[in-house]
């Protein structure tokens, strides 16, 4: 019975995801940002990495660049592209029309997010494979942590995108409302600068940022340096942010244009 009950919801999600994928493919600027930026930005931080004593912390340039690329994929392939998607669909009354049909609110938000999340996942997996070959990072020592980090980052990026869309008035202003999380995550979540090399007190604060747990799990899966206590702390922080984001979206997400 449970399988039969989930079948219609699955069909509705697939149909909505296909429609959203077609719309995503027509927006060349979003596609270009989602595909190119995560690949190009890690090379911009390479000169700074060469000046850091990464070996002291058990890190390599390849592992740090790989984690940075995945973090940029969270931010640009999923988060910023979904902020634009949610706001655009809302302002075009697409979300309002969808609510008059059989789709539930959760199905509408999930179906809209699926193409971006799928793109982010595919990109992250390709980056892992590419960095393992080109940057000699090797295979992850704890692959289950890397996979957990990828899942955590993708889900939380989508939830945060829906939350950011609640305070975004237009697609154009989405570039501004998404900027704080992008900047704080790049600097403090271990994407551009590994938190391992930061002062202990500052690192402890940065570990509480939304995407810090995902980045920490991805990198920890590659290096194998995370203890069970650190893994539990990262998972707990990620779950807390996810619960807060989902609650806020359920409470304040706008389904009609902001006038």
Task: Describe the model.
By secondary structure, the protein is mainly α. It is 75% helix and 0% strand. The N terminus is likely disordered.
Beta-strand fraction estimate: under 5%
Structural class: mainly alpha
Q: Which descriptor suits the 3D outline?
A: globular
Count up the helices.
12
Helix content: over 70%
Average residue pLDDT: 85
Whole-angstrom Rg: 19 Å
Short précis:
The chain has 259 residues and is mostly helical.
Record keyword descriptors for this entry:
259 residues; mainly alpha; globular; disordered N terminus
Can you lay out the helices and strands and say which pair or pack?
Layout: H1 2-26, H2 28-44, H3 46-50, H4 61-91, H5 94-99, H6 105-134, H7 143-165, H8 174-177, H9 179-188, H10 200-206, H11 212-223, H12 228-252
Helix pairs in contact: 1-6, 2-4, 4-6, 4-7, 4-11, 6-7, 7-11, 7-12, 11-12
């Amino acid at each position: 019975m449970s399988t039969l009950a989930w079948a219609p919801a699955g069909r509705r999600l697939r149909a909505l995801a296909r429609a959203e994928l077609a719309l995503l493919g027509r927006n060349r600027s979003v596609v270009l940002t989602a595909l190119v930026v995560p690949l190009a930005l890690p090379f911009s931080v390479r000169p700074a990495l060469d000046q850091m004593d990464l070996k002291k912390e058990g890190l390599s340039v390849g592992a740090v660049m790989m984690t940075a690329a995945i973090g940029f994929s969270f931010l640009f392939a999923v988060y910023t592209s979904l902020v634009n998607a949610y706001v655009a669909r809302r302002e075009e009354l697409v979300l309002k029309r969808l609510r008059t049909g059989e789709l539930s609110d959760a199905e509408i938000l999930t179906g809209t997010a699926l193409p971006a999340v799928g793109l982010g996942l595919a990109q992250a997996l390709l980056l892992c494979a590419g960095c393992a070959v080109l940057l000699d990072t090797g295979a992850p020592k704890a692959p289950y942590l890397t996979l957990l980090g990828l899942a955590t980052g993708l889900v939380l990026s989508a939830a945060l995108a829906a939350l950011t869309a609640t305070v975004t008035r237009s697609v154009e202003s989405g570039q501004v409302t998404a900027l704080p999380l992008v900047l704080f995550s790049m600097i403090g979540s271990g994407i551009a600068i590994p938190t391992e090399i930061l002062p202990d007190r500052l690192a402890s604060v940065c570990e509480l940022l939304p995407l810090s747990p995902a980045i920490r799990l991805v990198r920890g899966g590659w290096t194998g340096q995370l203890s069970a206590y650190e893994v539990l702390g990262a998972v707990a922080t990620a779950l807390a942010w996810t619960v807060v984001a989902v609650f806020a979206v359920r409470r304040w997400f706008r389904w009609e244009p902001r006038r």
